[in-house]
């Protein structure tokens, strides 16, 4: 059973998400929080698998709450999916850098929300379809001078190649076709790369790909 915590200051939004999630045989809502402080307290108390975190909340915003969760080693298995009203919300970039596994717009289709919850639990966190490349472009636009690539020293050439493809927004299936390997092989390479770099999920691999200079602006095509 996948346990989800809903963090949103609008009770109607929480009620809608709860009705959808609780209707699934493999998902249950473990708790709700109307603000960031309460969300943080309940995450520590309930240890949910996934937190659906609104960005704009009172007392402590979703960005700060996400950072505190992802920086707490005791909560390393908790995945945060940021919820936003606008696809290009100015805080989304920093939310991903802070360790969020991805983000969804609030008016996303119900099936996509369910897919996202299940995906982050499996470690295959992806950003909303149609938004991934725009967010990566934002990473590219804001990226600083590439950091030293020492962090990539442990990677094999194939793992670097796979990481670069993740960095330009390709899925496991797309990576498999590009490298002429099976999707399972592609997923294995991605997983090993994440372990070696200490990345929580694919979203952080994107960040590391740009910050290390492995991928550079203009590679999106």
Automatic annotation (TrEMBL):
Which terms are listed as keywords in the entry? Answer: DNA-binding, Phosphoprotein, Transcription, Transcription regulation
Q: Which residues carry this modification: 4-aspartylphosphate?
A: 54
Q: Where is the HTH luxR-type domain?
A: 148-213
Task: Give every Response regulatory domain span.
Answer: 3-121
Coiled coil regions in record:
none
Q: Which InterPro entries match?
A: CheY-like_superfamily, NreC/VraR/RcsB-like_REC, Sig_transdc_resp-reg_C-effctor, Sig_transdc_resp-reg_receiver, Tscrpt_reg_LuxR_C, WalR-like
Q: Which GO terms describe its molecular function?
A: DNA binding
Name the Gene Ontology biological process terms.
Answer: phosphorelay signal transduction system; regulation of DNA-templated transcription
Q: Which domain of life is it from?
A: Bacteria
The record's annotation in Gene3D superfamilies points to:
3.40.50.2300
Q: Which PANTHER family match?
A: TRANSCRIPTIONAL REGULATORY PROTEIN NARL-RELATED, TWO-COMPONENT RESPONSE REGULATOR
Name the record gives this protein: LuxR family transcriptional regulator
Instruction: Look up and give the organism this protein is from.
Output: Streptomyces caeruleatus
């Amino acid at each position: 059973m996948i346990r989800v915590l809903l963090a949103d200051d609008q009770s109607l939004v929480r009620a809608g998400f709860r009705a959808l999630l609780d209707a699934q045989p493999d998902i249950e809502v473990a708790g709700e929080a109307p603000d960031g402080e309460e969300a943080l307290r309940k995450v520590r108390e309930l240890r949910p698998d996934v937190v659906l975190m609104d960005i704009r909340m009172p007392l402590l915003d979703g960005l700060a709450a996400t950072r505190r969760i992802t920086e707490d080693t005791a909560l390393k298995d908790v995945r945060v999916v940021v919820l936003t009203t606008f696809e290009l919300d100015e805080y989304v970039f920093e939310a991903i850098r802070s360790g969020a596994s991805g983000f969804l717009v609030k008016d996303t289709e119900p099936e996509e929300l369910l897919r996202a919850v299940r995906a982050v639990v499996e470690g295959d966190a992806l950003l909303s379809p149609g938004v991934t490349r725009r967010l990566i472009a934002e990473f590219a636009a804001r990226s600083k001078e590439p950091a030293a690539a020492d962090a990539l020293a442990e990677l094999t050439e194939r793992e670097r190649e796979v990481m670069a493809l993740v960095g330009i927004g390709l899925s496991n299936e797309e990576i498999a076709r590009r490298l002429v390997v099976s999707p399972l092989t592609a997923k294995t390479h991605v997983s090993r790369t994440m372990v070696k770099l200490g990345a929580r999920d694919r979203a952080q691999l994107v960040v590391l790909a740009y910050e290390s200079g492995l991928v550079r602006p203009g590679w999106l095509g």
